[in-house]
Every structure is written in structure tokens, then in C-alpha cells.
Amino acid sequence: MSGHSKWANIxxxxxxxxxxxxxxxxxxxxxxxxxAKGGADPITNSKLADVIAKAKANxxxxxxxxxxxxxxxxxxxxxxxxxxxxxxxGPGGSAVIVETLTDNKNRTVGEVRHSFDKYNGxxxxxxxxxxxxxxxxxxxxxRTLDMTEDYLMEIAIEAGADDVVSDEDVFEVFTDVSSxxxxxxxxxDKGIKFLEAQIQLIPQNKVTLxxxxxxxxxxxxxxxxxxxxxQNIYHNVDLPDEEDEE
Length: 246
Fold this sequence. Notes:
Number of helices: 9
CATH architecture of the largest domain: 2-Layer Sandwich
CATH topology of the largest domain: Alpha-Beta Plaits
CATH superfamily of the largest domain: YebC, transcriptional regulation domain
Order of helices and strands: HHHHEEHEEHEEHEHEH
């Protein structure tokens, strides 16, 4: 399986400012609060454990994590968040999937539609592009002198992972959705730290955009990412290396 790779690129680029980091913490905080409604103990609530792993991978402070979980029993206890997914087309015929977590469906669909319309995209019907993606558990681990490909491959397979893809700076461990929590916990118990750990939509094939189409796509992505209700954005664009853009 070809990894979604260039992972560090987009993550590092988007984590450069405190404002972006703050938005990420806010989004994860909402996920934590929602997951914690199924129980505040990650030992018995695997969904919460998965989101905590995602929070730690994004360097979210422990105090923030605890505070978000406590909100589930407090101010958010009567707020009914709904997971809604939108599909559409970006510049150059690219495929875009937007996952949201909202307490106001009309507000969210309006904001998402507006972003697509204003920034050279088109919101489509359910299923219009999702067939181009596979749903997988993805665990990203930094490549270091102590973390060799042979060692990681051995314990990942022991844990029940499907595949390990080696990139220049990272390893990507892919799992079936049903075994993601088990694999994540197994690696975590081995003392492995994650750069990322979550269920993702992986494009089966990628498209290359150039010039104006690429610029327009990046603007659309950024505008969608700025929306409070948007949790994740998946696409099939093969983004250029950051150094190639400079």
C-alpha cells in the first residue's frame, strides 16, 4: 500500500503558528468531550483512548485533555453533537471529503457549501467521491536511529497491523478499522510514541495539480480547515514537498 506520505510536510506547515495549534486543540477537545460521553475511563472506553492518543500525538497538554473530558459531564452534557460528512470536488477535479462535528446542521452545511462555492470547488452528493478512498487506521511514527524498519515491522505485525510503509522521515502503520485500537494500544505499551494515530480516509489514487489549480486547492483547504465545525479534511491531491514550493 502506498502511504498518504508527505505527511510531515502538511502537518509541519500547518503547525507553524500558535493560532493553527490552538484550532487543532479546540477541534480535538470537542472530540474528547464527545468520546467521553461513552465513559470517562479510557481503559473501558476504547474510543476515548483513541482520541487521547490523537491528542498526545498533536502535543496537546495533559491539562487540556483532562479539562476536555470533564466538559463531557459538565457544560457539554446537554449538547448533542452530530457527525456529518460532506463530499465534493476541488480545483482540477480533485476529490475532497470534509468530516464535521456539529450541534447545528444548518450552520455547518451552510459554511461548508459557502467555502466550496467561494473557493473554486463544488459540494456534491453523498458518495460522489468517497468510493475513491479506503478507510484505514493510520499510525505515524518518527524514523529515528532507535526505531528501525525491521523492529517496527516485527512488532506491528505481532500487533495485527496490515502493513508498514517506510518514508524518508516516518513510518506509517496501516490497520483495519476493527483492529486499530488494539494495534495502537499494543504499540503504545511497547513505549512507541506517535506523530499521529487515528482512523483516516486514504485515497486509492492521487492527482497532481499545478499552477493556479494547486494554489486554488490550497486556499480551499485552508478555508475549510478554519471552520470551527470541521474536524478532518481528506483529499486525493499529491501535494508538492515544502522545499519544492520555496
